[in-house]
Design brief:
This protein is mainly β. The protein contains one helix and 20 strands. Strands 5, 7, 10, 13, 15, 16, 19 and 20 form an eight-stranded mixed beta sheet that branches. A five-stranded mixed beta sheet has the order 6-12-11-8-9, with no helix packed on it. The longest helix is centred in the middle third of the chain and has 6 residues. The chain is flat, with a radius of gyration of 22 Å.
């Protein structure tokens, strides 16, 4: 005879995970149900499922107002949570931004995971100019749902001429760096995905020279694509995990680096039992 008790453990996104107590004969595998209204997750061992309705929320918005002088470096960060996994784009006014010398981050992962996740995007302006003044909107999309967050950038225009020497310009960051530092601009912080599916973890980076990207697995070992056919680092820096399983749970670290700088992020992967 075995007894069953329930515990509440606060996890991911400020949500609750419900697990029956483990017994010597059986350790139940968690499954999930999402709540589209409260953005909460619950898990148990009884006929749970991913909610079929799409939902998305901006969980961490960039500041509403940014005031910076000409030549300053500006970085806007936007985080969204939703199901299916959200994508993020940036819009200036009514124009969708593309990656170029002035805007380094408007990239979207080509593959959309069907589970629940948090994704973070960074919009980088290496050298602020008057043309950059105006509203910038983070647009998060999950399936048919969209959430927005807008920042208004105001460019403080001082005099660029006068009795200022070269060191003055360097101290005020008014001369763009020859080698903008490496920055990872699109990545997941948390992913919850059904076991048996193929999972794609984005890691998009900018910098000059173009940074190299590699991944470290949950066992703190570098992932080498030809060592395990289930794990592969794709040409654009994404990590693909085929046939996701319970032992794959853990923190995966993406490292982007060149000869001058590096940046790292961590994505926590949580496999979920597929009861369908």
């Amino acid at each position: 005879m075995t007894s069953t008790r329930s515990y509440t453990l606060q996890i991911l996104f400020g949500c609750s995970l419900w697990l029956s107590a483990c017994t010597a004969a059986n350790i139940p595998m968690p499954s999930l149900r999402s709540n589209r209204i409260s953005n909460s997750l619950s898990a148990n061992n009884e006929n749970s499922y991913f909610e079929s309705q799409d939902w998305v929320k901006v969980s961490e918005a960039p500041p509403q107002i940014v005031n910076q002088p000409i030549g300053a470096r500006v970085e806007l960060e936007c985080e969204a949570v939703g199901s299916p996994s959200p994508t993020i784009q940036w819009i200036k006014g009514t124009t969708t931004l593309t990656e170029n010398d002035s805007y380094e981050s408007n990239m979207i992962s080509d593959t959309i995971n069907q589970g629940l996740s948090k994704i973070k995007s960074r919009l980088i302006i290496n050298s602020l100019l008057p043309v950059h003044q105006g509203p910038f909107t983070c647009v998060a999309t999950s399936g048919s749902q969209t959430a927005l967050a807008t920042t208004n950038i105001f460019v403080l225009q001082g005099k660029l001429t006068g009795q200022r020497n070269f060191s003055d310009y360097l101290n005020t960051n008014m001369i763009p760096l020859a080698h903008p530092k490496v920055r990872i601009v699109l990545f997941n912080t948390i992913v919850m995905e059904l076991m048996g599916t193929d999972l794609i973890l984005p890691c998009k980076a900018v910098g000059s020279p173009k940074p190299d990207i590699f991944w470290i697995d949950a066992n703190n070992e570098q992932i080498i694509s030809n060592q395990d056919p289930r794990f592969k680092v794709l040409a654009d820096g994404e990590l693909r995990i085929k046939d996701l399983s319970w032992p794959d749970m853990g923190a995966y670290t993406c490292v982007a680096r060149n000869d001058y700088s590096k940046d790292t992020i961590t994505t926590f992967v949580y496999p979920v039992l597929n009861e369908n």
